[in-house]
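From the shared-data thread, chain only:
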Amino acid sequence: MNIRKWAKLALLLSAVVVMAAAVPVTLSYIFSETAPLVNTFRPPAGLQDEVVVDIAITKQVKNTGEAELSPKGFTFHLKDEYGQVLTAVSDETGAALMTLGYNGAQSGTTFRYILTEQAGNHPGVTYSTVKYLLDVEVYLDAGEAKTRLYVNGAPVDAFAPVFVNQYTAPEIPDTGDPMPVVVLAVLLVVSCGLLIYLWKSRRFRTGEK
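Structure, as tokens:
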């Protein structure tokens, strides 16, 4: 490899180092959606939905530090009295939706569910341990199926649970060492010198003055 090729390689490496050091580092963690999205309970076979109950879940992440954690990809489970589990995963806005369907033939029955968030193992995250107890009472009103909702024993018009996690970003220690600034200055000088050398070499080969 001749001196021109070495000079070009050194110039390229210098530029990469300068850009990497000059641009602030921004951390962003996004969970991958690996859990199956099965988010609808329906009445038994042979019965059709006459009334549905939507569970609009909101995931909030309180960030501490410079880095931010996306509310996307958190998993929630709704478990009924028989062990059936409904699963939903939050999207990029932190929203997740579950739907429960009922039929007039189920009137006079109260269905009980427990809603929780699945704890993960992401570094720096404190997961919500909140549990919601949901009771859905199905009844008939003038022959039409309707529902009454109770969350933790209290009547509600709609169920919109919120789960809050805490994320503490890792701290990058500040050593106060001015060396990176000196290194950047040296790299800039070297880069300029290489550019001048390459320019003069090209002029010399082409016979320019």
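Residues 20-37 have pLDDT under 50 and may be disordered.
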